[in-house]
Design a protein that fits this description.
about 60 residues; mainly alpha; about 0% strand; flat
Amino acid sequence: MASSDNDHNETEIRFQEMHGARLLRQGKPRALLEVKTPEILTAVYEARLRGYDRAKAAKERKGDG
């Protein structure tokens, strides 16, 4: 049972990372993520911010930022 829960958590975290990257592409500021999502689990919340930050860093490396 713990393995299934862990798989679900990993899937949710990966989804949140993709969601953070999508918000960056939509031009939404990182602060918006912090204001709108304070009630979700910390790991999931941080995953969303991490996805946003990774997408921003990749964009800056490409010279688009």
